[in-house]
């Protein structure tokens, strides 16, 4: 019987016993309601946040703990909010996200229990009507967003409870001005109102209450507004106004009766507005005393005249002109814009710029020319000596010249990413001594050509990722003494040397992931100069080691301040073996990530060098198990990732004192049972992810599931979905469906019954052994022989031997010197002897039975030692069963010694044979040996007669 079949049978018997003994307990417990802890069916608790997003939920979960401060339910399939969805008290809940669902109804008072709520998100749903008291008791709500719905009807008092609302976003709905006016009457403290893309066809100040004294931001863009009419000071504090439109073909009428009504507006967006030039000029006159920011995207009017109108406002400093299909920038386009400090010309089609196009902008600090068709750095930018930020990203620049930035000596940020730059010259950045941020990523750069050796002393951030760099030569970054962040990921770097990062003493973050580095390169001491490094990412390279022995030069021995090290996803063939001193020198390391590297072993001394480690990620490695000693140096560990690592148990976590561990991810392994000792060894655990394992549905998991259901400290993520893998009758079912109440038995009673039964059994066995020892031994061998005979009696294979010789090793000398020479040498018989014919490696009982049934006869050489041998008696029993079953002359007894019949009493079958038949005895006198051999020859020569009368042969003497 296989071990699995035995286990299944035992489990079935155990279940029946449990059912019988646990009926009373079940009856009592059926009236008890368990106290729930963090047992959630659709959410994950992280700190004070309940993350229930992207779970395909069709209702608000009812098991969210009341202590959470935030609930995220976006991207589910919830059709509506019912009165009892938040019936529990959430005294700390301040943020509720219900965006991206199918919500089309909200019951009256559905949020009434959320008295502490500050932010409510209902974006991207199907709400068309806001009924009376839908926001009942949300008087503390500060932010409400219901964008991208279909709201066209709002009941009179829908917004009345939200007297403290400060931000309201109803963009992309179907509201008209009457609905808006009704809402605003109840929102005296509103500061930001977004009504973009609705159905507002007019905006009349008399329809809006004068209570909006705190409104600062108003967005009514993308509405079919025909008339904008303000005849009273309804927006005394308004600073930001957006009125552009994309849906109206006729002109908007702008009427602001008093220029002081909008005298606080600093930011104005009139993008895509449908208005004549004179109308826009009139509009500008109403804000010309305070305007500092103007956006004019995708305008249909004459752009040059619009710029002249806008630049006539003396206070304006920032001008945004995007998506206007500009091809050329002429020298007179910005003649009147002398006060501009920021100019955004991105997302146009600019191909050429006049050399003196920006000459009239002496105060320009920020210039954005990104997303255009420029093939070279425009010469016009060289004349801007005060420029601080220049953005030339997403263009088509293929080369940089030494003169490109020669006059931009005050530049602090330069963006050249996403172009077609292939080479760098060592003089291109020589005058940018104040530059702090340089972005060169996503180009086609192959070599650095000493561009950073001496020219950028104040640079703190350098982006070179997503290029084609293969080698970092010596002292390439020598001049970047202030550099704090260097990004080199997604290149083709495969060669480094000891001085590749020379001079980067203040570097804190280095990203080298997704390159072609191997173990040999990182052992050259290449990281030694960066003594202040805190984050190092070497993931997705080819760094693999073949030996566990210590390295001669540990790669990070000088990085004592490093806090985060990532070397996951290493390519190449074969498994990874981490050298024992790989982490030597990292005394302040806090996070180590080595997931998915085909790591199959970790030495217990690996983390001797990292006593401060808090986060360890070793998931997706074929580790199978870890020794408890492995964690001796990890007393400060707070997060541990063990998923998909072929672990069959978590018992290695027992008694290792990880008292600070609060996060454990150990899903997709082979656990069948989680022992209570594992749970007890992690006293600070708050979150455990144990999904996708092979749990056994029996009482061994009772303590684990009770903890998962009732713990008020730890959330076992999606424990309700754990599936059974064993026993077969439960496979595929939920572990939670197993009735663990059957395991509640009286342990004392079971112990008493077990102890009593064992004592009585031991007494019975002792008495039986004392009085019937030989009878039992004989019966045992009789039974074995009977089983053997049943197995072989139907076999009719041809005989391989004339006789099988059964003898004791003490008689082997007689067999070898007397029996074999006579029978095989002189008479020519073929004999089977255990010391030469038994098959090596085969069970001995199988060798015996095969030898007896493959021989015509069995010759038993009887002596005192023979009768004392267990295996000799087994051979005799098998042969005698063959004798009496086949009724043939197949057994020959030869006595070497004189044995009294009284000594044969324990051997019942042999004694019985001797009473009925004669036998052969080795003669004492040497002269009778010839007669002995003749009688033995006749016995071997006799056929397989079925007459019992010739089973044995006479001899000269009988004992």
From TrEMBL:
Annotated InterPro entries: Leu-rich_rpt (IPR001611), Leu-rich_rpt_typical-subtyp (IPR003591), LRR_dom_sf (IPR032675), TIR_dom (IPR000157), Toll_tir_struct_dom_sf (IPR035897)
SUPFAM superfamilies: L domain-like, Toll/Interleukin receptor TIR domain
Listed transmembrane segments: 20-39, 742-765
UniProt-listed Pfam families: LRR_8 (PF13855), TIR (PF01582)
Membrane topology type: Single-pass type I membrane protein
Record keywords: Cell membrane, Glycoprotein, Immunity, Inflammatory response, Innate immunity, Leucine-rich repeat, Membrane, Receptor, Repeat, Signal, Transmembrane, Transmembrane helix
GO cellular component, one term: plasma membrane
Residue ranges occupied by any TIR domain in the UniProt entry: 799-940
Stated family: Belongs to the Toll-like receptor family.
Domain of life of the source: Eukaryota
Protein name: Toll-like receptor 13
Compartments it resides in: Cell membrane; Membrane
PROSITE patterns: LRR (PS51450), TIR (PS50104)
A single GO BP: signal transduction
Listed GO MF terms: signaling receptor activity
């Amino acid at each position: 019987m296989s071990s699995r079949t035995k286990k299944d049978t035992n489990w079935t018997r155990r279940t029946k016993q449990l059912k019988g003994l646990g009926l009373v307990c079940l009856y009592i417990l059926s009236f008890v309601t368990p106290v729930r802890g963090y047992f959630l069916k659709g959410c994950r608790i992280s700190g004070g946040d309940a993350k229930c997003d992207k779970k395909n939920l069709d209702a608000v979960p009812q098991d969210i703990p009341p202590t959470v401060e935030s609930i995220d339910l976006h991207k589910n399939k919830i059709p509506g909010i019912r009165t009892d969805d938040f019936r529990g008290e959430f005294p700390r809940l301040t943020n509720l996200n219900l965006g991206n669902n199918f919500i089309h109804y909200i019951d009256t008072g559905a949020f009434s229990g959320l008295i502490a709520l500050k932010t409510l998100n209902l974006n991207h749903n199907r709400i068309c009507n806001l009924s009376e008291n839908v926001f009942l008791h949300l008087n503390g709500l500060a932010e409400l967003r219901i964008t991208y719905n279909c709201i066209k009807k709002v009941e009179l008092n829908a917004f009345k409870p939200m007297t403290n609302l400060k931000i309201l976003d109803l963009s992309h709905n179907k509201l008209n001005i009457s609905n808006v006016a009704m809402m605003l009457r109840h929102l005296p403290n509103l500061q930001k109102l977004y009504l973009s893309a609705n159905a507002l066809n007019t905006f009349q100040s008399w329809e809006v209450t004068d209570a909006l004294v705190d409104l600062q931001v108003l967005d009514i863009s993308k509405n079919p507004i025909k008339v904008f009419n303000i005849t009273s000071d309804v927006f005394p504090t308004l600073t930001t106004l957006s009125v552009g439109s994309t849906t109206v073909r006729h002109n908007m009428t702008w009427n602001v009766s008093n220029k002081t009504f909008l005298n606080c507006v600093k930011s104005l967006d009139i993008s895509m507005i449908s208005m004549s030039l004179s109308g826009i000029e009139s509009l500008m006159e109403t804000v010309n005393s305070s305007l500092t920011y103007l956006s004019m995207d995708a305008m249909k009017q004459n752009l040059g005249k619009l710029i002249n109108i806008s630049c006539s406002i003396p206070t304006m400093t920032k001008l945004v002109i995007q998506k206007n299909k500009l091809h050329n920038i002429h020298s007179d386009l910005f003649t009147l814009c002398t006060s501009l400090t920021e100019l955004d010309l991105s997302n146009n089609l600019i191909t050429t710029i006049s050399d003196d196009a920006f000459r009239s902008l002496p105060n320009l600090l920020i210039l954005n020319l990104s997303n255009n068709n420029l093939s070279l750095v425009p010469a016009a930018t060289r004349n801007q000596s005060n420029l601080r930020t220049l953005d030339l990203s997403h263009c088509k620049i293929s080369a940089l010249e030494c003169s490109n930035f020669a006059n931009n000596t005050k530049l602090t940020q330069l963006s050249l990413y996403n172009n077609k730059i292939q080479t760098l010259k060592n003089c291109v950045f020589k005058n940018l001594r104040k530059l702090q941020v340089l972005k060169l990523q996503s180009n086609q750069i192959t070599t650095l050509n000493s561009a950073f050796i001496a020219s950028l002393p104040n640079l703190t951030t350098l982006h070179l990722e997503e290029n084609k760099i293969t080698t970092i030569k010596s002292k390439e970054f020598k001049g970047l003494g202030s550099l704090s962040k260097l990004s080199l990921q997604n290149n083709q770097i495969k060669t480094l040397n000891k001085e590749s990062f020379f001079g980067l003493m203040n570097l804190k973050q280095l990203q080298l992931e997704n390159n072609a580095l191997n173990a040999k390169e990182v052992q050259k001491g290449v990281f030694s100069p960066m003594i202040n490094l805190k984050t190092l990412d070497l993931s997705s390279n080819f760094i693999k080691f073949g030996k566990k022995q210590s390295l001669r030069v540990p790669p990070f021995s000088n990085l004592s301040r490093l806090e985060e090290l990532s070397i996951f996803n290493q390519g190449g063939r074969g498994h990874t073996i981490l050298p024992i001193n790989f982490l030597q020198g990292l005394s302040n390391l806090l996070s180590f990530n080595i997931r998915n590297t085909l790591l199959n072993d970790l030495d217990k001394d690996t983390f001797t060098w990292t006593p401060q480690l808090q986060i360890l990620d070793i998931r997706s490695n074929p580790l199978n198990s870890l020794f408890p000693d492995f964690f001796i140096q990890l007393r400060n560990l707070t997060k541990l990732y063990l998923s998909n690592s072929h672990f069959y148990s978590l018992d290695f976590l027992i008694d290792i004192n990880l008292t600070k561990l609060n996060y454990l991810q150990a899903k997709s392994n082979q656990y069948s049972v989680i022992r209570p000792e594992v749970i007890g060894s992690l006293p600070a655990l708050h979150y455990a992810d144990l999904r996708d394992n092979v749990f056994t549905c029996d009482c061994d998991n009772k303590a684990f599931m009770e903890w998962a259901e009732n713990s008020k400290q730890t959330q076992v993520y999606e424990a309700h979905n754990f599936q059974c893998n064993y026993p077969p009758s439960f496979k595929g079912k939920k572990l939670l469906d197993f009735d663990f109440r059957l395991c509640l038995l009286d342990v004392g009673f079971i112990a008493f019954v077990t102890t009593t039964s064992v004592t009585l059994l031991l007494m019975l066995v002792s008495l039986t052994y004392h009085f019937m020892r030989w009878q039992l031994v004989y019966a045992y061998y009789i039974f074995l022989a009977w089983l053997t005979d049943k197995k072989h009696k139907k076999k009719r294979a041809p005989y391989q031997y004339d006789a099988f010789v059964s003898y004791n090793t003490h008689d082997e000398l007689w067999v070898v010197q007397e029996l074999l020479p006579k029978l095989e040498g002189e008479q020519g018989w073929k004999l089977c002897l255990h010391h030469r014919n038994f098959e090596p490696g085969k069970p001995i009982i199988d060798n015996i039975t095969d030898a007896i049934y493959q021989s015509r006869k069995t010759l038993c050489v009887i002596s005192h030692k023979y009768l004392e041998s267990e295996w000799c008696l087994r051979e005799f029993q098998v042969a005698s069963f063959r004798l009496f079953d086949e009724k043939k002359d197949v057994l020959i007894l030869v006595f070497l010694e004189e044995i009294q019949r009284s000594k044969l009493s324990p051997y019942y079958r042999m004694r019985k044979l001797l009473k009925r038949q004669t036998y052969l005895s080795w003669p004492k006198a040497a002269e009778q040996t010839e007669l002995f051999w003749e009688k033995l020859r006749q016995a071997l020569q006799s056929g397989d007669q079925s007459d019992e009368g010739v089973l044995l042969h006479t001899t000269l003497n009988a004992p």
